[in-house]
Amino acid sequence: MGSTSSDLASRFWGHTTRPPLRASTRRIGNRLINEPPVADTLADPREPMQRSTLRTVTLTVLALAVLCPTASATWSILIVDTATGEIAIGIATCLVGFDLRPSTVVVVPGVGVAAAQSFVGPLSLRELIRAQLIAGTPPSQILTMLSGTDPGHQSRQYGIAAVAGGTVTFTGTGAGAFASGVTGQVGSLVYTVQGNVLTGMPVIAMAEQAILSTPGDVGQKLMAAMEAARSMGGDGRCSCSQFNPTACGAPPPNFTKAAHIGLVIVSRPGDLDAPCTGQLGCGAGNYYLDLNVANQPAGAPDPVFQLQNMYNAWRAQQAGRPDHFQSTVALSGTQLPGNGATVSGTVVLRDLTGTQLTSSPAVTVSLDPSSTATDVQIGPVTPLGNGTYSFVVTAGIVPGQVVLNVVADDGLGNPVRISPQPVLDMPDPFGPCGAGTVDDGVGGSADVLRIAGTAGTNRVVTVGFGQPFTLEVDVPPLQIPGAGLVGNHLLWVRVGVPTVAESLPLGANIGSLCFPVPPLPFTSPTFLITDTFSGTGLFPAMPAPWATTVAGLLTVADLSVQGVIVEDLPLQLAVTNAIRLRVILMAPPVIVSVAPQSAMVGALVTVTGTGFQPGVAVDLAGMAITPLSVTATEITFTMPAGILCDALLTITNVDAQSTSAIMNPTPVITNALFAAGTSAGGALFLVQGTGLGNATVTIGGNPVTNIISQSGVFITMSTPPGSPGPAIVVVTTPAGCQTTTTYTYL
Q: Which of 143, 157, 300, 714 is the most buried (most CB within 10 A)?
């Protein structure tokens, strides 16, 4: 889509003169930027990337179009390795005094990459691309969103590639000729190549061929493709004619430059990501390889040559530094049952060429946020010399998946996350035997064993120390009620959680218990809980359905419970589901408030807080109190007689954890305001302090009958009449605790 005269005029008059730039090479993190001297220019980074094709223009508008550069990126190459998550982008164009990075690039490490070129739109379009890549939206759908959002869509050119979701290239009808793009795949690599105002299709075709045929890693393929595009003339405005880019063919004869500026970026999973900003655009992170030839004058060398030299120097510097993909992490197992089992890991650091390091840079191992098993313990990383390390992962109780971040320091302060990330599967504490074999009638296993009303989350049930809980055996779904021995059961409890290797097969038609049972019923660490066949066991029991209440276990422990049950005739046994019973110390009790804090004999006292347990003990000044009611957040009792001032109230749970507060506190006066007034009374008087709630006041022995307002920290009153001179003020709580101050009658 061509620019209108008003578009060009507004762009021109919106420019400000740019001061001369000094020649320099800057490093920002991994980012290397060449900035040769640049003359003053009217170029605006927002200018489009193609020459206007206006059919009718005035001489003034034509002059403005000549003065203003007409592109913001000409060719771009995107490569994504869907196996490793590595992404790469290269861009070059025939602009001077300009930096492509803030206006064209979208990089999301480990997720995807995009180039937005031709008539470059506002930052919001690249922000949309970034947000949707992160959301997992396929590039083809992202392109549809861009079309629906942007009135100038046909003036744009895009390449978008995702680790998961494919690729797309788009060239609007308004992009400057020659303009086109291709997408493709070779092995695990997907790619897009696109460009506008090119010398011709060979620029794109030869870049694609370089991707397909160049051996080596993603960075090597990207550099080869950039050189292939350059060798065909690249941007025809540099290699042929500003006004007729395709006139010289591809490649143009004897051309010297294919672009004025360019950049290449290679990002690997674990690189530092950053949101889009107005200054840095949507490529603001810290990436594995980041080279930028920016703000060059027309007389500077071709940026592709410069980028190749910079790349060669960068690659040489990688010797002896840990590499993401050449380094390895080996685990001693792939499963970590949620029962405290351990897996050891070995790290070997190698550089880009696969050479094992002789040094031992810092290595850390942490749990990736994507892990669903979150309570594993990762031990310290131990250097073993020559770039090797060891560590241990200990399972918690939460099943799920463990994803590890193993990160080495590259010597420049940049993190190198070793890929692929090690992954451990954490099954439930018991493995296959935990499901049991009681037929549910629909091809699965029924959970007939329940503790505290549940078969557990991931077969784990947690109860508090000393807290009562229920133990239940349900009727097997296929049981015939009242038929012979159906529903009879034996249950065992084992101290600790068994390993998978301890399972006890009971026969092909019965299944396996998750732990061995001894011939005698009470042989540590396994004990018989119920036996409805002989009537022995810790609890007398009846055939299912059966339930009992356990008063509470006064120990912190991990226990395993499982049994066998008769589920059908004639005497068909099945193994029940297994449950890991965890008896833990609950959170300690906390007193938030006591009301009233100063109570008369017989008054109802309410203690609010958290963590109050059934069986809680209440003690007031050494006197045992029987609560009227107990919930997890509230205890009530009747105030007994004989409680003195500053009595200690102590709440103690059955696990011996306790909390305390003061009752009947002695009031304290810290300040007296307006402490003098007429002997006729009626003067305003205020005392401040603590423990003043519900207190009564006398002044010179005369009661104060007009208390205007009162709280625990102040009393505002109107004084009674009194005799001239000082008078003792007595403040008394409902429990009879007192304090004094002085008031002067005038």
A: 157
Tokens of 110: 């480990």
Q: pLDDT tier at 73 (50, 70, 90 boundaries)?
A: low
CA 385 to each of CA 6, 416, 587, 726: distance values in angstroms, whole numbers, following the listed order: 68, 19, 44, 85
**Which segment of 352-361, 423-432, 502-511 scores lowest on mean pLDDT?**
423-432
Cα angle vertex 642, ends 638, 646, to 5°? 90
Cα within 13 Å of Cα(568), Cβ side: 12
HSE (CB half, 13 Å, CA atoms) of 660?
Answer: 11
Spatial distance between the Cα atoms of 280 and 296, rounded to a whole number of angstroms: 18
**Residue among 226, 221, 246 at smallest CA distance from 236:** 246
Mean pLDDT estimate for the chain: 88
614: buried, middle or exposed (CB in 10 Å: 19+, 13-18, 0-12)?
middle
The model scores a pTM over 0.85: no
Q: Which residue has the tokens 């012979």?
A: 484
Residue 146's φ and ψ, nearest 5 degrees, are -60, -40
Q: Residue 320 to residues 357, 360, 409: CA-CA distances in angstroms?
A: 6, 10, 12
Q: Set out the domains of the chain in order of their start, with CATH numbers.
A: 69-317 (3.60.20.10), 328-426 (2.60.40.10), 431-582 (2.60.40), 590-663 (2.60.40.10), 668-745 (2.60.40.10)
